[in-house]
Design a protein that fits this description.
The chain is an alpha+beta fold. The protein is built from 22 helices and 17 strands. The strands form five sheets. Strands 9-15-14-12-10-11 form a six-stranded mixed sheet. It is globular, with a radius of gyration of 30 Å.
Amino acid sequence: MAEAHQAVAFQFTITPEGIDLQLSYQALNQIYLSGVRSWKKRVSRVRNSLIKGVYPASPSSWLFVAIGILATMYMQSDPSMGLITKIQQHLPLHMSLSAQGQTMVSALVFSTLLWLSLILALRFCLKLLLSYHQWMFEKHGRMSNTTKVWVPLVRLLSSRKPLLYSYQSSLPHLPVPAIQDTVSRYLESVRPLLTDPEFKRMSDLANEFESNLGNRLQRYLKLKALWATNYVSDWWEEYVYLRSRGPIMVNSNYYGMDFLYVTPTSVQAARAGNTITALLLYRRKVNREELKPSRVPGTVIPLCAAQCERMFNTTRTPGVETGNKHTHTQNGNDIRTTVWILCCLHIIKAMIYNIYMSSPPRIPWAQMRKQYFSSGVNKRSLDIIERAAFFVTLDDEEQGMRGDDPEGNLDRYAKSLLHGKCYDRWFDKSFSVVIYKNGKSGLNAEHSWADAPTVAHLWEYTLATDAFQLGYTEDGHCKGDVEPSLPQPQRLVWNIPAEVQAQVSSSLAVAQALADDVDCHVFPFREFGKGRIKKCRVSPDAFIQISLQLAYYRDRGGFCLTYEASMTRLFREGRTETVRSCSNESCAFITALESGETEEECRRLFQLASERHQNLYRMAMTGAGIDRHLFCLYVVSKYLGVESPFLKEVLSEPWRLSTSQTPVQQMNLFDLKNHPDFISLGGGFGPVADDGYGVSYIIVGEDMVNFHVSSKYSCSQTVSNVSVSWSSETSHTVVGNHIYTRQYSQAF
């Protein structure tokens, strides 16, 4: 039984001579150490709360303020302008302290109040500084005087070493854009996608909305923005993720891959042991707030770290109407030895048990959960899984770029991480780690609690710690020795009646049909990378985005609404915003390129398109996006019970090209010069539209871009795997100062 324990703290028997008490000192020692760890954790939390509570000042700065006030009083000067005397009059200490003592206590009280006031002032100043975003829109090498003053001020107030959450209270709130600006930008974004009559009809709808219902909805939204920390995030999580009633497998969850060329060990249990250890080391850093806050690359500007709070011990639970997220209390902060974890994994493999965990639609799973998993052994076993830090799957297949068909094997590797066998992943966990038979690894992440950059940061640390710090013995096993006193793993007990088995079979059929329909293709593009692109004085992201639109145009013969994910973590509790990458400028460039315009004209149009893309990206990052604002207005309209033809049409438009870049955030962990084979493959996701593509890409080093393309076999108009054609011999166009073939993005 899961609740049976082999080790107890003491045993006793009753004999004619009395009670024979036998204490297990080893077990008592473990109890003692557990208590010590718990108290250390409490002390650490109090200390961290104090440090981040006074940031950007330090706790020791109180001493300097107090000494300064006492020193000025010693020199017969009153820095408080009479406030110390008033404090002394109201302190209930007249009978217990001398006059000098009362003055001393009053001065310390004044010093504390002054110190707290200074902290609030510093925090307010930092918040104002972090609310300035104009620096993002300035061209390279052309810094304005305002920005020149702003930079040293931000550095000055950020000079102290921060904890993970030190900046949270200083981050600005996400602003609500003016409704006329959002409507205007929306119409501009759809102009190249609509005919003249369609655009006139949409313009009429938009103008009607702006002049009537829109202003009413906007007032409610501004009221929420004054009250809530972030006017978007809670509704985004609730209505986009938790209220979705379909399977989250493929439709919501995303995956991350292992190194492309390297597998540190072929021993499955050893790779799992090191991976679990690295993840627990990361969790300890999160708990102790030892991680450095993420920043905008190349700057000191911090990003919101709120998503890290839900990284471990978090599970999404289904409901009939809406789901929930639960982050459970973590028991202890210790890390078992890697070899002990390895031994446990060998024991678990020897148990050979099966728990069929499909990814059904949310309503049947919620009903089964309430009826059959709310009590008894099923509830106890389910609680253990849902309270766990994360889920681990020991897969019985081999994956990776290997064998006689490396390209096809990479595609199968992606599909396996995206959905597996549909019953061997726990898709509701914050993330599930998958370790394959040949030692290859990966993860599947649930989307409601965090976005890909947060998970990517975790996975980068895990891969680097596994390969470069923990390491393996010559025969591929974990390093170190095991402590024999540590407990063995326990098998979970389940009671699965016939009704549940029938629902499992039905849900499994739905999940398998969904999984079989996904067409995944992963390919490393090695012809050039960001190094060559940047020589053209073009943003690598803009270059790739325009290339993807060109590929779609050649594939489908037209343009489409294009989704590119951008973060809004410059603001507190910010998540994402949509960059509508298909613009008038990008369409003009592609049309000119395909119609055979001159190289000079194509070059000019491409520069305009790339600059436009970067401006759209910056606007999305700084709270001037389109889609989250319109989404929240739509939610308000539903609460008010009013219909908006404009909002209804906007929210129903399909994203046939959904794209996202996986950022490389911790290059210091990977020495690509000395270890060039330790290249991350990045990760991917399923297609958003049934007749569209999902494209994820990661820019690795200077000379490589890895792409993940997904679509659905059921759509006859889409196919993920089309060979890329590249040849310097073919007809070409000029971009910047370099010549590129006209076939370079035949079909990414």
